[in-house]
Amino acid sequence: MQTIEEDASSGHGRHGRGPIRVSERVLLWLAVTAYFLMLCYIAYRLPFSEYPKAFPDEDARLSLPQYFYDTGRLPTGAEEAVRYPGWGFSYASYPLMLTTLVAGVLMKVMGLFTSNPDWIVFAARLVSITSASAVVYFAFRTGRVLFGRPLGYLFGLFPMLLPQFIFCGLYFNNDMPALCGASMVLYAWALALRNGWQPSNAVLLGAGMGIVAVTYYNAYSWILLSLVCYACVWHSRVRDWGFLRPARSAFWRITGLIVGVTAIIALPFFIRAAVINHGDFLGFATIRRYGMQYAVPELRPDLRPTPQHLGMSLGEMLTTDHYMGAGTNWLLMVYKSSIGLFGYMAVPVPNVMYWAYGVFIVAGLVGFLLACVRRLHHRGDDDTYAVLDALMFANIVLVMGLAMYYSYATDYQAQGRYVLPMLLSVVYFVVGGWRYWVRTLVSRATPSLQTKAQWVFVAAAALLMLFGDYVAIAKYLLV
Question: Does residue 178 sit in the same domain as residue 254?
Fold first, then answer.
């Protein structure tokens, strides 16, 4: 029986990767810094005063940290100044206020140096810019652990160069900080699957779950699945579902550390929401109440023309062109706006990019399925692969399910940012599939030639994505 420890020490298998070298750390930090500066430059080129509708819902989202900047207090949701025009509610009624607090503090700091409103807004955008850069950092580190060099770099390059990811990293929102938390959670999973639960990855997991908990409900699948991953890793180390007995002390120590870190980050926001919303700590009932009271008639929760209110089935919602015109449907628009659809779903990337990414993703998924079939014929006692595969698949199902239910019952939104929390899971399968294709094509070559072929593939994919980004972003900046 080969344990995870033996697999790691032997340097073989998907999770058996040695420590990252110092030169790689320096290069990674340089790449992330360059990416951060690039996002700053693009965000600077799109000042809020000149392009108030460049980003979806940014004006409504910005009203929250703006209120903090003006008053020094977090809004409660009852203030008219933070109410979403037309809809009648405010995002401040949710406990998802971590980004508002951080952005408000950054705006206060920026206000010490300038009163220019565009720079004040830019300070708020730094929340998403920093979060996107952090996602890139953790994605590269995760890819290194899961896939090794050089194909593991593709795990970081894919989100880093995805046009819609770049777009979401430019403006103030909750989507990107939530994905940042998710990337921390995934990296903690990868480390735990390789080395077991240690205080360092336990703190990382707790911090990631805490950030997710107070940023975006659609990303809660990462919290739920972390419970499964946590139990499965303990079981794989002890080889007994009664792991509380042989590892009781370590289990409770690590568990307490994770719960403590998560609670420190998230609990104050939920307590605050429970107080200001009279017990409604999630904010759902309060949002509905304000919507009923202040929304324009056609946007009231009981009158809103959702697919459910129109008598559609879920299948009809996914394929109808009722909401967005002929030639469109929910599935198509979610796909397009996951690849690149800027502004208020108005500025697409070139059509060839939708086809290219589609072929790349589908080929990767097919390759992953073939890799699974091959693995079934050579499977030992180590179920590490199956656990991670199942967690990634479950995350996609949960995120898609939440997005579809929200569009069906609450507010029809065929937007890729609503399924952004599953991005890393999709990338996991795609990179795993292409790992299979590349290794299969050069399986008869020498190890040196195999490594060179992998480097060529990663470099070619990065250059093509980079060229696409240049075309797409230049087009958006010039519109």
Answer: yes
